[in-house]
Amino acid sequence: MIEKKIVGEKAVEFIKDGMTVGLGTGSTVYYTIMKLGQLMKEGLSIKGVPTSIQTEQLANECGIPLVTFKEINHIDVTIDGADEVDPQLSLIKGGGGALLREKIIARAAKSFIVVADPAKMVDYLGAFPLPIEVVPFGVEMTNKQIRLLGAETKIRSANNGPYKSDNGNYIIDAKFPNILDPVTLEQKLNMIPGVVENGLFNQMADAVITLNADKQIVVKNRS
Ligand SMILES: O=C[C@H](O)[C@H](O)[C@H](O)COP(=O)(O)O
């Protein structure tokens, strides 16, 4: 999709020589990573911290050297995609199952930039089922507790049974009605025993790169 390429490539403007960069996961930030690989061939020098095994592989293919948290104190900029973005720049993430590492790496960054094609921009979060990472033990009970908060839920499946995240956990996709108070919902979900993390990213994105109705690139900053 051309919109993903446009916003994904625009994000490289936030990255300067010598930076440590959090590398998100998904089909939009794919274009950011590919462009960074190209710029590295032209002399840019950065280090990356990948948010998933998939991104680790892509970064390796692109020649981006990777570091772990043992080797760094902070990340300068993290670039990542989103499944939904509301007007306050709260996000739903985790459609690709990478939300836990993504949230750790977004939080560790001085600046968190989101790349989102216009279809991701919504008035209220919630049309996209919220991904919630849970430990396999007691998943049926954890699922019931999530339903008590008003969601219809599905344990995500893969070819041979439940989908497993890079961390060996399951993902429950929870369809809530319009999420009017994402801050409270994020907290309530994380208080349920068995929930490791959920895909609500509130007050985290510093800026979102998207396209307006005229297909022009816009950078929305969090106020
Ligand atoms: O787990 C996956 C991530 O949160 C992605 O960043 C998100 O699903 C958006 O992916 P895409 O850019 O492919 O729509």
From TrEMBL:
> Which CDD domains does this chain map to?
RPI_A
Q: Which SUPFAM superfamilies match?
A: D-ribose-5-phosphate isomerase (RpiA), lid domain, NagB/RpiA/CoA transferase-like
Q: Which UniProt keywords apply?
A: Isomerase
Please list the reactions this protein catalyses.
aldehydo-D-ribose 5-phosphate = D-ribulose 5-phosphate
InterPro entries listed in its UniProt record: NagB/RpiA_transferase-like (IPR037171), Ribose5P_isomerase_typA_subgr (IPR020672), Ribose5P_isomerase_type_A (IPR004788)
Do you know which Pfam families this protein is assigned to? Rib_5-P_isom_A
Active site residues of this protein = E102
Q: Family per UniProt?
A: Belongs to the ribose 5-phosphate isomerase family.
| UniProt function note | Catalyzes the reversible conversion of ribose-5-phosphate to ribulose 5-phosphate.
Q: Which NCBIfam families match?
A: PRK00702.1, rpiA
Q: What is this protein called?
A: Ribose-5-phosphate isomerase A
Gene transcribed to yield this protein:
rpiA
